[in-house]
Amino acid sequence: MKRPLAIGVIFLLVGMAAGCSYLQKKDEPPPLPPIEETKPPLTMKSEYFKSYPWLELTKPKKDGNDPDTITYTAKDGDTLVTVAEKIMGDPGLAKGLADFNQLPSDSSLAPGDKVIIPYPIIGMSSRIMIKSKGDKEFGDPKPFPPLFTKGDEYKLRFESNVNGYCYVFRKETKGVAILYPAQVKKGKKGKTPQPLPLDSGKIKAHDPIEIPIGTKGTKYDPKKAGDTLMVFLSLKPISELERLREKTSIAVDEVEEVMHRVKEGEILNEPPYHLLRITDPAEIMGFSLNIDG
Q: In angstroms, rounded to a whole number, what is the distance separating the alpha carbons of residues 62 and 83?
């Protein structure tokens, strides 16, 4: 009888120990997730805008709680020049990065030093080219708003500093017309043909698009005075605007609804440039332009 009793006592003690261990673990807080360094959504080339608009940026918060910046931890061999090239795409931005961090431009970095870097800026330039009656070629691109005379033709010219997606709509009295990219055309048996590169809406950095595509321009119509352009730029396709390409008739509200989602906080909005600092690749930049008087 003693042996079975001893075995029972052993099982009881093991069970009690396991139970105590369970209760103790239950009261312990869950483990924290691993801390990962936030990375910017893209690197940016600066040659398009000549210089990063440092003077327009507020000084960084050193506590790491600035939502418009990231903190880069220097590694062995890093300098402000290598950091500017690695993260921002241009070693020439080292001077601005030094001023932003209130450091000497030739300041060397030790492993572990923190460098505050503002999130990238996406931008679009919007210009117009006019060909007067009797001219053979369109004139040089000029900022909006244009000055037209009777018989003029024009082309719209947009250029981005990043790879992304561009959408251009013309807001008229009767509704909205999509100017870029081309509307989706149904092929035989409802199949959609493969879009041409110029029709896809996908644009390349520093590769300007002209509207309309081809040698002919759009004729100036004084009866359409008051029409406006609505332009959108994003690093990712804008699903609501993609769906509008499949419609034969577009209501003003459908485009303005997307305009309400446009991120605020523009760094610069002076013709011909429109700039916006982003923290997420899905954020949208949008703006309106006056056209035809």
A: 18
